[in-house]
Specification:
There is one protein chain. The model is unreliable at about 1-45 and about 130-145 (pLDDT under 50). This protein has a 22-stranded antiparallel β-barrel. Strands 9-16-17-12-13 form a five-stranded mixed beta sheet, with no helix packed on it. By secondary structure, the chain is mainly β. It is globular and about 100 Å long. The protein folds into two domains: about 30-130, Carboxypeptidase-like, regulatory domain (Immunoglobulin-like, Sandwich); about 145-275 and about 280-780, Maltoporin, Chain A (Beta Barrel), CATH 2.40.170.
Length: about 775
């Protein structure tokens, strides 16, 4: 069965490659010619228009642009690399129209000769006159993405303008969308539609990042200057993705400016960042870096206290990318990422000492070769290397405690996009991933030790089908063979969209999903996460999803949408915290409580304004999620900590009218969030035991049912002011900003702490962050 499934996609690829037609690099004809016929001459072969869509100013390839020949009733979208193909064009002169968010509409009249295929690379100019009015779009992707369920595309201009802690952050911006929440102010993890952070796959240039956070989740690892495109599937994601039970975040870094060298960056109270890019022959290069300078602040703190002499912390990010245009049909791309956090803390000396050391980080490299086999066949060959390391060590009164985690994966994948007709685009591919996991913890000696090197073989086929001018569908299937336990799974996926009338669209989507890795994490913050595999002793997690939606766009300025979702979960696991301290635990079944079930269901409402001086959105989520384990709370269902009944988010930007043409422009930005308080397990009673040897009483707490208590509701307002500037004449575009996180200083509740040793001590409530003012400066030249 394995061989037949894996070779199916390979056979499709080989058969499509054999369909190669005459060269796609033909030049545009200048005059009509006599029609050429096939066979007896009664059937005239129609033409194919293909090529790449790029930005005029920097040559960046534009994914998911819409290309149409209105008179012919033909349209398609470019793929993730900006390549497109339209088949079935009759001879004669036709107007080609191209649309892409934030760019001027491209129109060109082209003469087609019967039987001749035409290669036309299109460059689109930015619509700078509208950028000042129409940026803050939660879902402003092309028609292809808009026709799918639960997909969001956020322009990076919107992310950069949102108030944040210190500097713009992609992950925290996503937390403002309906259906997405954070565990706390200190967490940039994504809790999507009742799922934990491990149920969201996060990819950067095709590489999976296992812990995309800095400063214990305070910031994400994504440098906003280096990002080109962000696609976020909150659920019902298509067959070309796998490995996650809930959602997928797909981030692409910039390829680099193919026209001229440019530099951009910014400085804030937390860190500095810079990105520089430029042409490389027919290709491009890009380098981006970011580093915190909390170090000098810590030096001042250490200088004022001898007890904090061992305090130190910093983090850094480094991104690089090289694109080489080998031929008009061949492109080679190499992308790399590296980032680390390093924390050291020490108090006292000798037997009275306490020390804490922690370092975690990611390394990732992607190599991608793309080739245009024929006008209608586009292929990719990708090699990926990803490594995540986390080391935590404590020394408490000369007693060592340590946790280590190593995750490495090497992936080779090949896939093709076949533009079969104007109604069908077929995507197919095969992935082979070799994992290596090393997880251990110790108290004097290692107690837990998991070492495993499984492989995962996956294949997928996906068809994007335009059933009629009003109806679009996407169906596919993904197969997986996981070597640990010899697990073979088949996961069907589908999405269906129908235009009920002008501006009103109904959607439905869903499918089956599988997950083979498990995250061990503190729910309050994202630092020190540990990933472990599920071996042959435990079945991989499984989910079934169904999503329905209705979207109404009465004009190009306003959009309203509503979605409902239901996710059925099975084969869930949670960390077993009740095992004996000195027992050896060498398998997944020893480490986890297994066989869990659950569900998540809810409704999301979304209203967006995309034009005028005031732009932004309002989102509301009503959600329920439950888990059930035979070994937890006597098998009764309980809400996980991140179960939230109500979530409200309001974000907006108001742009003031400039006083004069050269005065720059002020804007006011705000975010407001409200959410039901997190679930926690309260103490139900206190009882006392007497030590039989010493005769001393020992107080103990009896916990209530799991997560039956609720903290107070969470709410917060962030505000910010920005002003655009021109420095050194017209040579440097700049922007200064002042921001206030948690403007009215709401001390939201984080968790409750009990003191079992003192019956008269009231429970203490740990609070989240107070008001945090900051300012910064962004530039580009």
């Amino acid at each position: 069965m394995l061989k037949s499934v894996s070779f199916l996609a390979l056979a499709c690829t080989v058969s499509w490659v054999s369909m190669t037609t005459e060269s796609s690099a033909q030049t545009e004809p200048t005059a009509p010619a006599e029609a050429q016929s096939q066979d007896s001459g009664s059937d005239v072969r129609r033409s194919i228009l293909s090529g790449f869509v790029s930005g005029l100013g920097d040559g960046e390839r534009l994914p998911y642009a819409t290309i149409a020949l209105a008179a012919e009733g033909l349209a398609t979208q470019s793929n993730s690399e900006g390549y497109y193909a339209i088949k079935g064009i009759t001879a004669g002169e036709h107007v080609v129209t191209v649309y892409y968010v934030g760019h001027q509409v491209f129109r060109e009249s082209i003469i087609f000769i019967a039987g001749q295929d035409l290669r036309r690379d299109i460059e689109m100019a930015r619509q700078t006159t509208r950028l000042n009015e129409v940026i803050v779009e939660a879902d402003a992707a092309s028609d292809e993405l808009r026709q799918l369920t639960s997909v969001v595309a956020i322009p990076m201009q919107s992310v950069k303008r949102m108030p944040a802690m210190g500097e713009p952050d992609l992950m925290r911006s996503l937390q403002l969308l309906p259906g997405v929440q954070a565990a706390s102010d200190l967490s940039s993890g994504l809790y999507v539609r009742g799922g934990g952070p491990d149920q969201t796959g996060i990819f950067l240039d095709q590489v999976r990042l296992y812990n995309p956070s800095h400063a214990f989740g305070f910031f994400s690892t994504f440098n906003p200057d280096a990002i080109k495109d962000v696609t976020f599937y909150k659920g019902a994601y298509p067959a070309r993705y796998g490995g996650s039970l809930g959602a997928v975040l797909d981030v692409q870094n910039r390829d680099g400016n193919r026209r001229e060298r440019s530099t951009s960056g910014g400085m804030s109270l937390i860190s500095s960042r810079v990105m520089t890019e430029g042409p490389l022959g027919e290709g491009s290069w890009m380098i981006a870096g970011r580093r915190t300078y909390i170090d000098p602040v810590l030096n001042l703190i250490r200088g004022s206290s001898d007890d904090l002499d061992g305090l130190g912390y910093h983090f850094f990010d480094l991104n690089g990318k090289v694109n080489t245009q080998l031929t008009p049909n061949d492109n080679l791309m190499i992308s790399a990422y590296g980032g680390d956090d390093d924390l050291n803390f020490a108090l006292g000396e000798g037997t009275e000492s306490l020390s804490f050391n922690m370092i975690w980080g990611n390394r990732a490299v992607t190599g991608r070769w793309t080739h245009v086999f024929s006008p209608e066949l586009f292929g990719r060959l990708i090699a990926v290397y990803s490594k995540y390391e986390s080391d935590i060590s404590l020394d408490i009164f000369d007693t060592p405690i340590a946790i280590r985690n190593r995750v490495r994966d090497v992936t080779i994948k090949g896939d093709v996009d076949y533009f079969a007709s104007t109604d069908h685009t077929i995507r197919s591919g095969v992935d082979l991933t070799f994992f290596r996991f090393d997880y251990g913890s110790r108290f004097d000696q290692y107690r837990d030790n998991l070492n495993i090197e499984p492989y995962l073989l996956s294949g997928f086929v996906q068809d994007e089908w335009q059933i009629s001018p009003l109806t679009d569908a996407q169906w596919g299937v993904r197969t997986n063979y996981y070597e640990a336990g010899k697990r073979f799974t088949v996961n069907p996926r589908f999405s269906f969209s129908h235009l009920l009338r002008e501006g009103l669209r109904a959607k439905i989507g869903g499918g089956s999903y599988q997950q083979f890795l498990q995250l061990i994490s503190a729910e309050g913050f994202s630092g020190g996460d540990s990933w472990v595999p599920l071996d042959e002793t435990v079945k991989p997690g499984r989910s079934w999803q169904i999503v329905t939606g209705l979207e109404w766009e009465p004009s190009g300025v306003y959009r309203l949408s509503a979605e409902t979702y239901y996710t059925d979960l099975a084969n869930l696991v949670i960390l077993d915290e009740e095992s004996e301290e000195n027992s050896e635990r060498g398998s997944s079944q020893d480490v986890f409580k297994t066989g869990g079930e659950g569900y998540a269901t809810g409704m999301e409402l979304f209203a967006e304004k995309r034009g005028g001086k005031l732009t932004g959105w309002l989102g509301y989520t009503l959600g329920y999620t439950r888990r059930t384990f035979a070994e937890v709370d006597e098998g009764r269902s309980f809400p996980p900590k991140y179960d939230r009944r109500h979530d409200v988010s309001l974000t907006g930007i108001y742009r003031f009218k400039p006083v004069c043409p050269s005065c720059g422009r002020w804007s006011f930005n705000f975010n407001f969030v409200y959410g039901t308080g997190q679930a926690f397990t309260p103490a139900a009673a206190r009882y006392t035991l007497r030590d039989p040897a010493a005769g001393d009483p020992i107080d103990r707490l009896l916990g209530a049912r799991r997560n039956t208590g609720r903290l107070l509701p969470y709410h917060r307002l962030d505000i910010g002011f920005r002003r655009t500037l021109k420095l050194f004449g017209e040579g440097v575009d700049a922007e200064i900003y002042f921001q206030f996180f948690n403007f009215y200083n709401r001390r939201n509740e984080w968790f409750v702490e009990y003191d079992p040793n003192d019956a008269n001590t009231k429970p203490k409530v740990a609070r989240m962050l107070p008001v945090l003012p900051t300012f910064g400066f962004d530039f580009r030249f």
